[in-house]
Amino acid sequence: MATLEQKLQDMLQGAVEDAGCQLWGIECQRSGRFMTVRIFIDKDGGVTVDDCADVSRDVSAILDVEDPIADKYNLEVSSPGLDRPLFTLAQYARYIGETINVHLRIPVADRRKWQGKLEKIDNDMLTLLVDDKEQVLVFGNIQKGNLVAKF
């Protein structure tokens, strides 16, 4: 069964691309009686406020017609930012050599939170360099991951 994020991704991909952007990812978070639906968009040269407004307007129209979310929700459209969340294995592969944070569903070596340099990806296995030691993590066990911003 597809998750709500996957259903929304399939439903909204075309509209985001028609606006000249790439659908980077979608997060759905419940907060009390409301849900927040965050849509991250990206494009060459960076995302502008106008891009976010255009995508928000187009996506809102689709969500109003299709009505895939049973609860009340707030829609947010933004760029992924410097500490961009990573959703797909291809996105992780783009940042080999960079420092990332990951939160695991199931602990590895008694830890759920890991930060390290992404060394390589082999099939669905990510190798992080953590404190000069390699740690191999299964992509499917990653609940949330993001790039660590450099300043």
Automatic annotation (TrEMBL):
Main location: cytoplasm
Cellular component per GO, a single term: cytosol
Example GO biological process: translation
Matching CDD domains: YlxS_C
Keyword Cytoplasm attached: yes
UniProt keyword Cytoplasm present: yes
Matching InterPro entries: Ribosome_maturation_RimP, RimP_C, RimP_C_sf, RimP_N, RimP_N_sf
Domain Ribosome maturation factor RimP C-terminal: 86-151
Top-level taxon of origin: Bacteria
Family in the record: Belongs to the RimP family.
HAMAP family: RimP (MF_01077)
Task of the protein: Required for maturation of 30S ribosomal subunits.
Protein name: Ribosome maturation factor RimP
Source organism: Haemophilus pittmaniae HK 85
Designated gene of the protein: rimP
